[in-house]
Design a protein that fits this description.
Elements lengths: L2 H29 L13 H14 L13 H11 L3 H22 L8 H14 L6 E2 L2 E2 L8 H15 L1 H6 L16 H4 L6
Antiparallel strand pairs: 1-2
Helix pairs in contact: 1-3, 3-6
């Protein structure tokens, strides 16, 4: 690795470290908002309906809370409004419109109005059309990252918002704010769920 690449990666890691507390405070602020009172900061009503439908389809309520239950869509709207630069926001608007346009061309309705079977077909096609994230080390992709596409980027943000929520961290994942002593040789069956911290 040359010096320029090392400096670039160091800068990216520093930026991520600085952005994380801001993103977590955005997530916490979403928990206090009630859904009927919610007015999106960035998304239009139709865009908010699309994002909510995507969140509900990718992270539905089962025996655990769904993405809408932990307000992942509200969090994403705050990130779009407060973190994305103007160019990224405009690109997002174009991608949301193009996504709904593909749904209209293929199924005759926008994504939010489609049934579960059609939604699953749309997302399966989007998964197949987009690239995949390279494995990463400490948040940095290993190797040259190909473009992953709109849907996979949005899905990544949905999953991040979901697993970063207090509800999931405390009540679904194992949670221990002050971990005890390190015990390296424990059978996996004794450990249980993955740890959120």
């Amino acid at each position: 690795m040359d010096r320029r690449s090392a400096l670039k990666r160091t800068g990216l890691m520093a930026g991520a470290a600085l952005a994380l507390p801001t993103a977590l405070s955005l997530l916490q602020s979403c928990q206090n908002e009630k859904r009927p009172d919610w007015k999106p900061e960035f998304l239009t009503a139709s865009e908010a309906a699309l994002v909510a439908a995507l969140v509900d389809t990718v992270l539905p309520r089962t025996e655990t809370p769904g993405g809408l239950d932990v307000k992942a869509d509200m969090f994403m709207d705050k990130v779009f409004a407060r973190v994305y630069d103007p160019e990224a926001r405009e690109a997002l608007r174009r991608e949301l419109a193009a996504f709904d346009s593909r749904c209209i061309d293929e199924y005759g309705e926008v994504f939010a109005e489609l049934g579960d079977t059609d939604r699953a077909s749309v997302l399966k096609a989007e998964e197949a059309a987009g690239g995949k994230f390279n494995p990463g080390v400490w948040g940095t992709a290993v190797g040259e990252q190909e473009p992953v596409g709109f849907y996979r980027n949005l899905k990544s943000m949905m999953v991040w918002a979901y697993f970063s929520s207090e509800e999931i961290g405390r009540n679904v994942l194992s949670y221990d704010p002050i971990p005890g002593a390190f015990q390296g040789c424990i059978p996996l069956s004794d450990v249980g769920n993955r740890w959120s911290l």
